[in-house]
Amino acid sequence: MPRSKKPAPQPEASRPRSRLIRGDAPKVAKPVTKVAKPMGRRSLCPINMVLEAVGDSWSMLIIRDLMLRGHTSYQAFLRSEEKIATNILADRLAKLEQNGLITKSADPADARKFIYRLTHKGADLAPLLVEMTLYSLKHETRIDMPKEVVAEMQKNKQAFASKLTRNFTPKTRRAVKVEVDPAEETLSLF
């Protein structure tokens, strides 16, 4: 069977010109001016911005531990069942602090240690934690969480999230120091 030959390329002058080159294209309004991306951001998409702040495998677990389990120390985070590595924990705590989701202050009982707390911005993640929990409850067969907490969350997720936000939003007035027994610190809602 004879091979068909490819048509020879046309000389530049004989090629048909596109509509855009001829100027026949419809007039378009001025393009929307793009807002410059902040340093270190892939984009200004709201979902991207949240994922950059807490979208890795560990950040939301640290937020969970602060909000739902009452952990406030480095050692308490290390004791979580997921067994985060020390270098990753240090990195994620620094990242969460840099993103304004947590604060770090010296422990008055031991100046070598720090106490971590949620900021207003961090406490506002409560509805996201509730939604993620309800999603898992809907799609996973084995969940390790007390039934009474599940029932309260499913009954009224907005009220549950509001209660979490209220409980963990820093107070603007002078805080009262509360001593926490280390044995109670590891008690969990999950």
Which CATH first-tier class of the domain at 46-170 would you pick? Mainly Alpha
Question: Which regions have little confidence, pLDDT < 50, spanning 5+ residues?
Answer: 180-190
**Helix amount:** 40-55%
Structural class: mainly alpha
Describe the sheet with the most strands: 2 strands, antiparallel
Trace the largest sheet across and list its strands.
1-2
Order of helices and strands: HHHHHEEHHHHH
- How many beta-strand segments? 2
Strand proportion, as a percent range, falls in 5-15%
Task: Please explain how this structure is put together.
- This protein is mainly alpha-helical and 190 residues long.
- It has a domain at 46-170: Orthogonal Bundle (Arc Repressor Mutant, subunit A), CATH 1.10.10.10.
- 44% of the residues lie in helices and 8% in strands.
- It has ten helices and two strands.
- A two-stranded antiparallel sheet has the order 1-2.
- Strand 1 (102-107) and strand 2 form a beta hairpin.
- Helix 7 packs across helix 9 and helix 8 packs across helix 9 (157-168).
- The longest helix is centred in the last third of the chain and has 14 residues, at 126-139.
- It is extended.
- The termini are far apart.
- The model is unreliable at 180-190 (pLDDT under 50).
Topology (SSEs and partners):
Blueprint: H1 19-22, H2 46-54, H3 59-68, H4 74-78, H5 86-98, E1 102-107, E2 110-118, H6 120-123, H7 126-139, H8 147-155, H9 157-168, H10 182-185
Antiparallel strand pairs: 1-2
Helix pairs in contact: 7-9, 8-9
